Amino acid sequence: MKVKIHRIDPTLPLPAYHTTGACAFDIYARETTVVAAGKLAHLPTNLIIKIPAGYVLQLSLRSGTPKRLGLLMPNAPGLIDQDFCGPTDEIKVAVVNFDSEDVTVERGVRFAQGTLVKIDRADWQETDVMRASDRSGFGSTG
Fold it and tell me: Rounded to whole angstroms, how far apart are CA atoms 36 and 96?
């Protein structure tokens, strides 16, 4: 699949799949950012991507980011719509510093990852009854 991409800073690498079995590509920080202890920040990724029709870009942190940097995504996964690709629509990743000290994310660090996921749109068909019995709520399968 061919995907149009613009790097704001062309000296940083394009996103890359780092193993042959990787389903997600790694994303780099465009600039050094300090995330204050207990606070939210938006880390710039250097990328404007034209998501292909029928797909969504899902963002998450790399698995080692919480341990190495003390960061979590409050809205994981982040979803990037197909029409978010204007000239200033740089993708940013929202993170929360759950540590008790400020965290510095250095420029060029691989901290997040993205996956292009095929989607469909629902054609809602409203009904008065779903089925004869229910499952009793949260955690109902044991």
Answer: 9
Render pLDDT for 20-55 as a digit per residue (tens, 0 to 9): 999 999 999 999 999 999 999 999 999 999 999 999
Is 15 in contact with 114 (CB distance < 8 Å)? yes
Listing DSSP states for 30-67 in one string gives: SS-EEE-TT-EEEEE-SEEEEPPTTEEEEEEE-TTHHH
Element counts in the chain: helices (H) and strands (E): 1, 11
Select from 63, 74, 79, 77 the least CA-distant residue to 111.
Answer: 63
* Nearest-angstrom CA–CA distance, 52 and 142: 40
Length of the chain: 142
CA atoms of 42 and 73, how far apart (whole Å): 10
pLDDT digits (tens, 9 = 90+) for 67-95: 999 999 999 899 999 999 999 999 999 99
Q: Is the dihedral of CA 103, 106, 109, 111 positive or negative?
A: positive
pLDDT digits (tens, 9 = 90+) for 124-133: 999 988 876 7
